[in-house]
Design goal:
Elements: H1 3-8, E1 11-16, E2 31-32, E3 35-36, H2 37-45, E4 53-59, H3 65-73, E5 77-81, H4 86-96, E6 101-106, H5 114-125, E7 131-133, E8 147-150, H6 151-160, H7 164-168, H8 172-175, E9 183-185, H9 205-218, H10 227-236, H11 238-241, H12 264-270
Parallel strand pairs: 1-4, 1-6, 4-5, 7-9
Antiparallel strand pairs: 2-3, 6-8, 7-8
Length: about 280
């Protein structure tokens, strides 16, 4: 990596979190090995070498006072913003922190591995990309989502995105307009694709049982377990993966198949309409 470039770029990592999840309300505050899941995840994100400033971005709704106060009590940077316009929430936070590059990680990825985060960030820093993710196409198990973009790219999306789902999901305007942006992607280095086979994210009660069980089985490693430690655990105890297997391959895209242009890999991969 060009260390001079790294020194000259201010990276800010934003973890979006709210309590008003429709499928599993309050999920980020659910207890995992004695701590709210959000705190466990932040610990994992901060192990990354290149994440820069790490901040939670929550909403200005009263139900998210709990998240705001949790962050204050644990010396975690936090800003509040629009409840549903996540693009605006990211943009306003990026301006507040004077970020040159913004890393976007959703709070429903509590098993995320710092090495995967750094791999995406380094690919962005080592090349002339406007946007890099590990999602287009996705190959890692769902729940390892990392995106990074320049401030100018985020600002351009903020100014021009006019569809509701583009505002709600922050980055679709960027990856839906590859003619306007230089886009890069990181795939799992093994060449495997588990994105529709393993689900490490949390939207449903079964997901929570899966996440909690993984943490409990690996808690002797003091939250230093890796992506491959989880894979090994699931290989040794396949019954754990069955806890939320029925939700594998579910994405928000299904509700917008007629509006999105660049999700052909999902339509082809699943061969059917996805059931979110």
């Amino acid at each position: 990596m060009d260390t001079n470039k790294l020194q000259n770029i201010k990276v800010v990592t934003l973890i979006q979190a709210r309590n008003s999840s429709t499928r599993l309300p309050g999920k980020v505050m659910l207890p995992v090995c004695g701590k709210p899941m959000l705190l466990q995840m932040i610990e994992r994100v901060k192990k990354s070498e290149h994440v820069g400033t790490v901040s939670v971005i929550t909403t200005d709704l009263i139900e998210d006072d709990e998240i705001f106060n949790l962050c204050l009590d644990n010396n975690i940077s936090v800003v509040r913003g629009h409840p549903t316009d996540l693009l605006d929430r990211h943009y306003q936070a990026a301006k507040y922190y004077k970020a040159d590059a913004i890393v976007k990680i959703p709070s429903d990825c509590p098993l995320i591995d710092s090495s995967i985060i750094d791999r995406v960030i380094k690919h962005y820093l080592n090349n002339n990309f406007d946007y890099v993710s590990n999602l287009h196409p996705a190959t890692y198990p769902d729940g390892n989502d990392v995106e990074i973009m320049s401030f100018n790219t985020l600002e351009n999306a903020w100014k021009n995105a006019d569809k509701l789902f583009e505002r709600e999901h922050t980055t679709p305007y960027i990856w839906e307009n590859p003619d306007l942006h230089n886009i890069g992607n990181i795939e799992w280095e093994t060449g495997k694709d588990f994105s529709d086979k393993m689900r490490w994210t949390i939207d449903y009660e079964e997901d929570y049982q899966f996440i909690k069980t993984v943490y409990e089985k690996l808690q002797n490693r003091n939250n230093k377990f890796t992506f491959y430690d989880v894979l090994k655990l699931l290989e040794e105890k396949p019954e754990i993966a069955l806890l939320n297997k029925r939700h594998a391959g579910k994405y928000w895209y299904e509700n917008h198949l007629d509006e999105l242009n660049n999700i052909d890999e999902y339509k082809e991969k699943f061969g059917k309409v996805m059931n979110v």
